[in-house]
Amino acid sequence: MKTTTTVGQIKTPKTVNEFRQNLKRYFYGCGKNALYVKPENGVARAIPIASISSLNDIYRLTGSGFGGDGSSPCIIPLINFDMDEVADYMDANELYFNAWGFFGDEYKVYNKEKSSKVQRKVKNPQWFSLDNQILREFYVKVLGEFAGYSVLEQEVA
């Protein structure tokens, strides 16, 4: 059974239900109905996906962001991420302030929908903040407008 997909094969969500399905499929969770979230200075916990309609809800539920303590909570995408590859990409493309384009259509993502054991295939699971500049492109492509970022603002940056 194939447990990976590519960013280009992921349907960018247009509805809250599609957004929630992508949270279930492409991010670490607790079972099929909860997402692991770690506040910046706190202990990780499972948040019911049914209570998340956008990444802004994660800020609200953790008491973080502009309306809370100013921090950014973290989630774990199901990817094998290597910062050295990002640095090489940025150097090759003369990028200095972002890595837009790194998560191209061929970038591999594990799909938890295929097997709950797929989380074990991520070699080095890493927490990434919701405002991580490198992961923003991934969030936009996988979570769409529900990520809180627009493609236009990234292409201009």
Automatic annotation (TrEMBL):
Domain of life of the native organism? Bacteria
This protein is called Uncharacterized protein
What is the organism of origin for this protein? SAR92 clade bacterium H455
